[in-house]
Amino acid sequence: MNGPIKFEGLRGARFHRVTKESDIEITIALDGIGDTDVSTGLPFFDHMLTQLGRHGGFDLVAHTVGDLEVDAHHSVEDTGISIGRAFATALGDKVGIKRFSSVSLPLDEALIDVAIDLSGRPFVHYDIAFAPDTPKLGEPGFDPQLAEEFFRAFAMSAGITAHLSLRYGKNSHHIVEATFKAFARALRDAIRIEGDQLPSTKGLL
User: What is residue 88's three-state secondary structure?
Assistant: First the structure.
C-alpha cells in the first residue's frame, strides 16, 4: 500500500511505495541510535544509506527492489523519494526543532559543504560535478552522478531547502561519501529539539 504511516507519539514513520520500476519499504525513527538495515541491490548505495542513518542519528530500514537490469537510476531516485516522504511524516509539525543547519565535512582530500533549512519549501542547489567517464563505484556499479538524483529526490519529497557544494576533492568515493555524511550530520542538527515553539514567524512550516 502506497502512503506514509506516522508512528503514534513518536518521531517515526513507515512508507511503502510501489511503481512499475521499484518496490520500496522504508521505516525511519528520528530519535534512534543510528541502527540501519539497508538492502537496495547496490552495495555502494547500501553503504551510503548506512552512513546516512548512522551519522544522522536515526534508525533506518530501507529495502528496495528495483529494475537494476535496466539501470540503477530508478532504484536510487525512488529510494530518495521514499526516504524523503518517510522523513517528512516522521518530523511531523516541526514544533521545537532547530530547523537550520550547516556542516563542512572532510573525508581525506575531499571537503563538502552542506546547508539545509527544514522550511517546507523544497529547493536543491547541487554543486558537485563528476566527469562523464568517472568509473562506477562497487559492483553492480553506482554512477557517482546518481548521488545528485538521491539528494534531489529526498529534499523535494521532504520539503527541504538544501545546498550541497564540493569545496575540493579528487577521489569520487571520498566525495560521494563525504556528501552523504555531511547531509546526515546537517539533518541530525536541524531536527534537534531545542524548544517548544515553531521556528517560524509565519506560524507554519
Answer: helix
202 domain residue, yes or no: no
- CA–CA distance, 123 with 62 (Å, rounded to integer): 24
Residue 57 region by backbone torsions, left for phi larger than 0, else alpha for psi between -120 and 50, else beta: left
- Which of the 8 DSSP states describes residue 164? E
CATH number, residue 91: 3.30.230.40
Distances (CA, A) of 114 to 43, 81, 102, 164: 24, 19, 6, 5
pLDDT tens digits, one per residue of 102-117: 999 999 999 999 999 9
Task: List phi, psi (to 5°) of 177.
Answer: -65, -40
In the chain, pLDDT over 70 holds for what percent of residues?
99
